[in-house]
Fold:
Amino acid sequence: MTTRFWALSLLLVACATDGDDTPVVGADTGTAETGDPTATDSGSETDVPEDTGGTATTATLTGVIDRSTEPASGGVGDLYVVVMDENPMTGGGNAIGAVIVENVDFSGSGASVTYTISDIPPSSTELYVTAFLDDNGTASEEDPGPDQGDLVAMEGISFPTITLDAARTYELDLTLSLSMPF
Structure:
């Protein structure tokens, strides 16, 4: 996606740590809230009926994002969540769904934010979900990736994955667990 994702992949392979990431459960588009950081249901797939007035032909991804590391730049900024068709750490892939939740506040302990990405084409292949908090205000349309100090959602040394193989709503909770060091 951007040069910074390439650099992130090199860094993660070189100095990965495996921490205790326990996300908060819940869903409601773009609302900041304080959640229970002890909840443990992450990455579940749930049949949630879509109220579309007809038959849905696309998937929806929803979930809660929290953090397990302290923000370097105050913790208030825009939250970017992107679904990719390939692993962005290998330098490829296209964004097939995205949302920007503006002006979220991760400064307090236990803070969480919900997100929803709609109109994702169902696919039987594994999809990669990237999320980062741009609390230093440097991301732009021309350079939408994270940079030094931004919090990034990781599972160990890779981005979270999910398969959205039917036209329904799926849940995937994420934890911002890495502060970009460069």
Remarks:
- Residues 3-47+57-179 form one domain.
- The longest strand covers residues 95-105.
- The chain is about 5% helix and 35% strand.
